[in-house]
Specification:
The complex is a heterodimer of chains A (about 150) and B (about 325). Chain A is mostly helical and about 150 residues long. Chain A has one domain. Chain A is about 80% helix and about 0% strand. Chain A contains eight helices and no strands. In chain A, α3 crosses α6. Chain A starts with a helix and ends with a helix. The relative contact order of chain A is 0.08. Chain B is of the alpha/beta class and about 325 residues long. Classes of the chains: A mainly alpha (about 150), B alpha/beta (about 325). Chains A and B meet through α1, α4 and α6 of A and α7 of B.
Amino acid sequence: MKKEDYKDYVEKRAKKSPLLKNVTFAFVIGGLVCMLGQLFMDLYLYLQIDKQTASTLASISIIFIAILLTGLGVFDNIAKFAGAGVSVPISGFANSISSQAIDSKSEGYILGVGAKIFTIAGPVILYGILSGTIYGVIYYIAGLWG
Amino acid sequence: MQKEIIKLKRAPSIISSYSVVGKKENDGPLGDYFDEYSDDNKFGMDTWEKAEGEMQKRAVMGAMKKANLSDTGVDVLLSGDLLNQCVGSNYGLLDFNIPYVGLYGACSTCAEGLALASCLYSGGDFDVCGTVTSSHFCSSERQFRFPLEYGGQRTPTAQWTVTGSGAYILGEGGKVKITEVMLGKTVDMGITDINNMGAAMAPACIDTIKRYFKASELSPSDFDLIATGDLGYEGSEILIDLLFKDGIDIRKNHNDCGLMIFDRKTQDVHAGGSGCGCSSVVLSCDILKKLEGGVYKNVLFIGTGALMSPMTLFQGMSIPGVAHLIRLER
């Protein structure tokens, strides 16, 4: 059997991930995460905090909960079902950093945690900043022409 | 001249074996038959890497105790694991005063170790050879995939690395003999998905089995069991299907160590177990005991390994497989 034929054969017979189930879970749980964020936002607004600060605090609250659940060893069990529902919101970003930090602790705080903490989140940060910068430059030049 | 099957002139017997596993393995269908298990997956250590070494140490000590041997009674120790530079073995076996050889064959290491130890024994210069392999879910996950607490989803073809270590002492006086050895050739059929290692290893296993039956002029029905380790569900299905198309029918007497160690329905392991601890503990606690008890008389044991590293995967290189075969007879 040729390599190409074998790859086709393998791909055809491999059981696919349950798409409908995964998408449904991600949709529902992702929605719940966003709703939780909104609840925090409303709470902070109720406490007379200005809108911009309340919005930041809502994100920080979700980050805190995600990191706490990661540390307690619960987040990965939720993510097994929720998938993108918890990994796309800021909770996923928090988990990718905190799980790596916990994992690297055995190699010390400098060469372990310090050097490896952004292993998973690094690409998001790098290309996020890069695309933001490019967008900013274009926005600036477009503004010059008025 | 390259030999296909090495028919051992002086066939060693397996004097003793010992298996050590983690909690999930002990909760599986073979739970009652392992020699030792720990609820604490760190085995009393402070890192996963040390835990893996500790398992090896306990396995070797257990096997030596069963065989009534001290360090000086063992001529050589062949050992391997999945970690970079084989650190599980290197550190785990530091306390033994026995000449040491490190091996890497991924999940095929158990068969590789037994094959090489048999050849050393057969050559006449070694009378008692020890071989041990291990894998640990947590140390492997860190090295090959993601941090343990990272939230992700596995695909149905992904395999679960077994936490376990199996040790064997080969020499004179055991009931089960290793009579033939066939070393595998590396085969790469272009699979790049680390979550489908069964498919990456199956072609190497097919190559070894086909070469064996051609050279030996035997057929699958001559054996009570053809055990592979560890192709998991996906790899096993591919193996059976493609061999059948080539006129070799192993449907009746094939089993895979990755399928035997876990209950795929209840243990959330997707395609089954993997890692060089998997076939090692299954051979020790199940296949060998059935050979010793007379349930089996003639068994082919084929270790299959996926020989990639995270670096080669990122570079887009495909996963080569290898499959080493030994024949066990009572």
